[in-house]
């Protein structure tokens, strides 16, 4: 297929959405139905897109569509365009309702479950012109989002590489050991992490600061963490522990309400690393509104 000069009139959002859906479903009929198009019209739009960009997006087969390398690129970039347009429309609607700025806040599970909701509610009440958009991510992903501009502000566990960012203390928390009632590790006195390493462990998915702390501590003791399962939330961790599948660490303030409802036991850890600092960070070129929100969130002096 020869490369032709781009005809931007072919790049309407219906055609972009159609191509993205074709790539996701590998089925033109399904994609056309989702876009409220009859099949011939949908097929024509895809052909015109391909002619406009000079690349074949799909290979046609009797069983459906196969996405070409160009199709994968178009799907990724097209999806970004659609998401950006959705965000633009949302902000325009918010502007009509008095919201003049969105602040993207990325934070880890520990910060969200223990501290952030009442702080966001309080700040939103005093600054109704601002919309705080919160997204939960592991600490490593929070830092990445700050660096690439997807996040205006991030809250993460100290120890994650935050070089180049403007970072201050947010709050502190404490990791505690949780286990089923009647477990061999049951007790009230603090226990050394080293004394738990013969057990099967449940933890969060890769990228979580808590998992990195566990792995680093085990390695420092010359041992391997017997990681049986990884899940994506504190609640899921607790359910796995409640089912007898292993033991786990959770932030104390988050864990206690869950432990009572699931009848689980807990013990503090002796190890100094179990007491953690959570940090709040922004880029050094952040604007005044983001800096003001960070100053509100940082640990009071």
Radius of gyration: 25 Å
Number of strands: 11
Helix content: 40-55%
| Count of helical stretches | 11
How big a fraction of the residues is strand? 15-25%
**Mean model confidence by pLDDT:** 88
Distance between the termini: 65 Å
Regions with little confidence, pLDDT below 50 for 5+ residues: none
The major β-sheet equals:
7 strands, mixed
3D shape: globular
Structural category: alpha/beta
In short:
The protein is an alpha/beta fold.
Write the layout of secondary structure elements.
Layout: H1 13-25, H2 28-34, H3 39-53, E1 58-61, E2 64-67, H4 69-96, E3 101-107, H5 109-114, H6 116-126, E4 130-136, H7 139-147, E5 153-157, E6 165-180, E7 201-204, H8 209-220, E8 227-231, H9 234-242, E9 248-251, H10 252-262, E10 264-268, E11 275-283, H11 288-297
Parallel strand pairs: 3-4, 3-5, 7-8
Antiparallel strand pairs: 1-2, 5-11, 6-9, 6-10, 6-11
Helix pairs in contact: 1-2, 1-3, 1-4, 2-3, 9-10
Written account of the structure:
The chain is built from 11 helices and 11 strands. The strands form 3 sheets. Strands 3, 4, 5, 6, 9, 10 and 11 form a 7-stranded mixed β-sheet that branches. The mean pLDDT is 88. It has helices at 13-25, 28-34, 39-53, 69-96, 109-114, 116-126, 139-147, 209-220, 234-242, 252-262, 288-297, and strands at residues 58-61, 64-67, 101-107, 130-136, 153-157, 165-180, 201-204, 227-231, 248-251, 264-268, 275-283. The N and C termini lie far apart (65 Å). α1 (13-25) packs across α3 (39-53). β7 (201-204), α8 (209-220) and β8 (227-231) form a beta-alpha-beta unit. It is globular, with a radius of gyration of 25 Å. It has 301 residues and is α/β, with parallel strands linked by helices.
């Amino acid at each position: 297929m020869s490369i032709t000069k781009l005809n931007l009139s072919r790049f309407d959002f219906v055609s972009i959405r159609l191509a993205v859906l074709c790539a996701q479903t590998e089925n033109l009929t399904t994609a056309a139905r989702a876009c409220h198009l009859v099949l011939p019209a949908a097929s024509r739009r895809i052909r015109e897109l391909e002619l406009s960009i000079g690349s074949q997006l799909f290979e046609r087969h009797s069983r459906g569509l196969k996405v070409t390398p160009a199709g994968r690129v178009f799907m990724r970039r097209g999806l970004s365009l659609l998401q950006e347009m959705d965000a633009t429309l949302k902000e325009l609607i918010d502007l009509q309702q008095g919201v003049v700025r969105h602040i993207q806040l990325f934070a880890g599970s520990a910060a969200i479950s223990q501290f952030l909701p009442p702080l966001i509610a309080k700040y939103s009440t005093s600054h109704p012109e601002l919309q705080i958009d919160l997204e939960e991510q592991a600490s490593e992903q929070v830092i990445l989002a700050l660096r690439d501009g997807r996040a205006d502000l991030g809250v993460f566990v100290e120890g994650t590489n935050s070089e180049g960012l403007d970072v201050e203390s947010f709050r502190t928390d404490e990791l505690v050991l949780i286990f089923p009632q009647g477990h061999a590790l049951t007790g009230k006195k603090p226990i050394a992490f080293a004394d738990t390493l013969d057990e099967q462990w449940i933890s969060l998915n890769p990228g979580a600061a808590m998992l990195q702390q566990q792995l680093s501590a085990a390695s420092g003791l010359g041992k391997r963490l017997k990681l049986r399962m990884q899940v994506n939330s504190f609640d899921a961790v607790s359910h796995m522990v409640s089912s007898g599948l292993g033991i786990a660490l959770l932030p104390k303030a988050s864990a206690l309400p869950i432990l009572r409802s699931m009848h689980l036991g807990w013990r503090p850890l002796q190890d100094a690393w179990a007491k953690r600092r959570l940090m709040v960070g922004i880029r050094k070129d952040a604007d005044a509104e983001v800096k003001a929100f960070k100053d509100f969130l940082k640990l009071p002096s």
